[in-house]
Amino acid sequence: DPMVRISLRLIPYSPTQWLVVVRDVTKLMRLEQVRRDFVANVSHELRTPLTVVHGYLDMIEPEEHPDLAVMVEEMRRQSQRMTQLVEDLLTLSRLEAQEHLPEEPLGMASMLVTLRREAEALSQGRHQIVVEDLAGCDLTGSVKELHSAFSNLVSNAVRYTPTDGRITIRFSRTADAGARLAVIDSGYGIPAQHLPRITERFYRVSTSRSRESGGTGLGLSIVKHVLSLHQGRLEIESEVGRGSTFACVFGPARVRARSAAEA
Ligand code: ADP
């Protein structure tokens, strides 16, 4: 595509003058596009072989091969992880390519019920799960993507909170008539020096704990992308040993009256 892309920056220079910085970013953007396409293609190509490996592994009956049982179990776990990684990479590519998302009504009362169920399924009774619906409104946006963002935060809260901890899912209004979905945990917390980079792809605080937790290191980048496509933002507060709060904050334009079906 022969189009030239230019980045313009205006910098105040003196009380009566501005500096205009013009940069040709054509090459930079083309490289970025190549990177995105490459990741998307590789991920896509990995899907089929993984499905085959999965399928054959599922055909092995561990009882018939007691000597292989441990190995087969580990191979299943690892191929499951790889599948999750590929799915998350494809999700990120899809989000990066997207400029506009559907504007659908998102019923928050039923969303909160779903999130509670997901938290309980992951926690298996190891945590206290609390849901607080204080906002009395709904949202608009892509139901699928917002659900995946909220689910990611809920699953992190469960995975990074030791047994007997508490996880609170709180939906409330903000001072500027927007809304906020916060996932609050009483878990391990995140050291302050990691916070600025925590939403980067593959960035993880403690690799051993994170790896054991079964995540891919892509969850928070997905959350951040989804929120920015909704003109929202992710707020993070955390204290080591006390817990973390991850909040999805939406402007007033994303808020709608709660539908009768949801009230
Ligand atoms: P992962 O798949 O590793 O969970 P994420 O992108 O979701 O990837 O999170 C990145 C890292 O941030 C995690 O590896 C973990 O170290 C840290 N993290 C995320 N959520 C929490 C939380 N609720 N409490 C403590 N640490 C967290």
How would you portray this structure in words?
Helix 1 (26-59) packs antiparallel against helix 2, helix 3 runs parallel beside helix 4 and helix 4 packs antiparallel against helix 6. It is built from 6 helices and 10 strands; from the N terminus they run E-E-H-H-E-H-E-E-H-E-E-H-H-E-E-E. The chain is globular and about 80 Å long. The protein is 43% helix and 24% strand. It has helices at residues 26-59, 69-97, 108-123, 143-159, 207-213, 219-229, and strands at 6-14, 17-24, 104-106, 128-133, 137-141, 166-173, 179-185, 233-239, 243-250, 255-257. The mean pLDDT is 92. The relative contact order is 0.12. The longest helix has 34 residues, at 26-59. Bound molecules: adenosine-5'-diphosphate. Adenosine-5'-diphosphate is lined by residues 152, 156-157, 160, 185, 187-188, 190, 198, 203-206, 210, 213, 215-220, 244. Its EC number is 2.7.13.3.
